[in-house]
Amino acid sequence: MIGGRHVLPGPLGAKPRRSRAVGCRCWAWRDKRYWRYEEAYGPRDVIGAFEASVAAGLDLFDTAEVYGWGKSEKIVGALARRSEANVVIATKYAPLSGRGGARAIHKGLAGSLKRLGLQRVDLFHDIIRAAETTSAASGCVTTARLPA
C-alpha cells in the first residue's frame, strides 16, 4: 500500500498504476438473463452506481467480454470516457471452448477495446486461468494496448 492506496498486482506501466483496494465489479451492468437488467433496474441505476462509486473514491471498474455479452464493456467504456475521474479499467478474456486458446487472446483484447471505446486498458486477464493469459498477453504489451 502506498499513500493509503493499494498498488494493483504486477507492474502496470513504468509508474505502477494505483487503485483503491476495493473496486466496482460491473457484471450486472446490462446483463438481462442473470441480473434482470431493464426488468429490475435500468440505465439510470447503472449511471447512478458509477457516479456514486466515483464520488465514494472508488476508481477500479472491472468488466469482462462475457458480462452481458459485451454490453457491460460498452457501458463501462462510455462512463469512463465521459468521467473526469482518473478511473482504472480492468477487463477479462473468456477462454471459451473452440476459441483458439492462447492464440485468440490478441483478438479478444481487440474486441474488448472496441467495445470499451478505449485505446488501452489498465488490466487484462483471463476470467478463469490467469497464468495462461499472462503468458500469452505479454505480446499485447508490445502493441501498446496494455501498459508495459
Task: Write up this protein.
It contains five helices and six strands; from the N terminus they run βββααβαβαβα. It has helices spanning 32-35, 43-55, 71-82, 105-116, 130-142, and strands spanning 6-7, 18-19, 24-25, 60-62, 88-93, 123-126. A four-stranded parallel sheet has the order 3-4-5-6. The protein starts with 5 loop residues before the first strand and ends in a 6-residue tail after the last helix. Helices cover 36% and strands 13% of the residues. By secondary structure, it is α/β, with parallel strands linked by helices. It has one domain: TIM Barrel (Alpha-Beta Barrel), CATH 3.20.20.100.
Structural class: alpha/beta
Rounded mean pLDDT score: 77
Using the coordinates above, name the CATH class: Alpha Beta
Q: Architecture in CATH?
A: Alpha-Beta Barrel
CATH homologous superfamily annotation: NADP-dependent oxidoreductase domain
The CATH topology name reads: TIM Barrel
Bin the helical content: 25-40%
What is the number of beta strands? 6
The end-to-end span amounts to 21 Å
Strand order of the largest sheet: 3-4-5-6
The main pleated sheet reads as:
4 strands, parallel
Approximately how much beta-strand content do the residues carry? 5-15%
The total domain count is 1
How many whole angstroms does the radius of gyration measure? Answer: 15 Å
Low-confidence stretches: 1-14
Keywords:
148 residues; TIM Barrel; two-stranded antiparallel sheet; 5 helices; disordered N terminus
